[in-house]
Amino acid sequence: MFITQFIHPINILGLYSIIILQDIPYP
Q1: 14: number of CA atoms within 13 Å, CB side?
Q2: Which of 24, 4, 23 is nearest to 12 (CA)?
């Protein structure tokens, strides 16, 4: 249970970071 509590938030942050990176247009 402790491991999943640490991994779950990391996966959520990873998904958000991917969305943010895709949302930012590179020059």
Answers
A1: 6
A2: 4
Residue 3 has pLDDT above 70, yes or no: no
Q: What is the Cα–Cα distance from 4 to 1, expressed in whole angstroms?
A: 5
Per-residue pLDDT tens over the stretch 6-25 = 667 777 777 777 777 777 67
Q: DSSP letters of the chain? A: -HHHHHHHHHHHHHHHHHHHHHHSPP-
The whole-number pLDDT of residue 12 equals 75
